[in-house]
Amino acid sequence: MTLRSYGKCPAALAGLLLLAATEARADWKVTTYKSDSHPEITSMAIADEYFTGARPARFTGTTTVAMVDLAEGGGGQFTINNAFPGLDNLPVAGDTNDYTARITGTLVVNTAGSYNFFTDSDDGNRFRLDLDQDGLFEDFGDLEGHPEESIVPDGGLQGSGTPERSGNYTLGLGNYNFEVSFFERGGGANIDAGYRKAGVATQYVLGDATGGIGLLGPASVTVVGGRTGPTINNFPQADALRTGGLAPGFPMTELRDTFNLHDSGGDADFAGGFGVPGLGAPDANDDDDYLVVGRGLLVVPAGGITGALFRSNTDDGGRLRIDVNQDGDLLDAADQIIVRDALQGPTNTDSSPVDLAAGMYLVEYSWFERGGGGEGEVSVNLGGGFRLLGDDAAVAAGTSLRVVAPEPASGLLAGLMLAGLAGAVRRRTR
Prior knowledge:
Elements: H1 2-23, E1 28-34, H2 44-52, E2 57-65, E3 69-72, E4 91-92, E5 95-96, E6 99-109, E7 113-122, E8 125-129, E9 150-152, E10 164-165, E11 169-171, E12 174-184, E13 189-197, E14 204-205, E15 213-215, E16 219-226, H3 235-239, E17 252-256, E18 260-264, E19 290-300, E20 305-315, E21 318-322, E22 336-340, E23 347-350, E24 354-356, E25 359-369, E26 374-381, E27 386-388, H4 392-396, E28 402-404, H5 406-429
Antiparallel strand pairs: 1-17, 1-19, 2-16, 3-13, 4-5, 6-12, 6-15, 6-16, 7-10, 7-11, 7-13, 8-9, 8-12, 13-14, 18-26, 19-25, 19-28, 20-23, 20-24, 20-26, 21-22, 21-25, 26-27
Helix pairs in contact: 1-5
């Protein structure tokens, strides 16, 4: 009798646990692992962050030049081609990528008149000139009479050979501070800046006083190399984030009723996607290089399910695992329900038909994001169309499956086991 009493206990406890889970609120435990990565330098906004200290530098170099023409391999309007200081030549010699430069100094107008300015760069640049000689660079004009002093704005990712020109400015005799900024993403690299008199074709490099504007002294050059990457391009790289290499403040975990997350771009098959834990509201930022993992216990009701189809919709990779043999891990081949390890736009990936007996199964849904649009969602089709996995209304209608958070369920299991064992002990001692 004692052995039979113990033998009935696990089955009874399993039934109680399944009943409790069926009544519980649906919850995914969703955790974001964000790589401590830094983007490639693709704009002046990113380049500026290396000068404010918002991003860590890979290297720094300084020098002075008598004429504003710097190049790594040539290019531009002039052939002076001063070298950029400090280049580390990584990843290969002669090909330094993702760095930014600032050239600052003072122009001396020796001949008053109307002038225009230009830059020619590979990649982007910006030319600021202190037109009102107040010691500041105002990027936007204001009501107090300050002119806009970004006279040649950011040119973006581009090759060289076509100058970007300012309008005409009437300059009196005297000194005018200037700042020419530049960034290099990849490929060729050069920046030169110059001027010419309005209506005259001949152009001069900054530093050549022949055309009426000289330099007060050599211009200062500061070059900062950006620390880019590491990027997340596949699941092995994404899974490695679970053990380290995270941005400050991560991992970040929240409970969600469904796994329907939206960070940027489109909102996939089901509207109303929530922001990713730790990354804020959708479209607040275009975050890159992170992994989001949702874990829970999948509750299959009495009678089980036959021929169920699961669907992953992600930009980029998506993966669904279910512990189909209930051995406590998600490592078996049969546990890999969906594996879409790819860089892609929003894409639906469906599973093969899945049969599961009534019970509780550890479930994990993962999605990684490399760049651009970012969203992930997981749903199930029990015969009436796809519904979000864990959606309470769909569960009540019998068109989806419940998901409960793993920790509360584990605690409930432990409590029920203790209660069951206590009852068995009491029966045994009678």
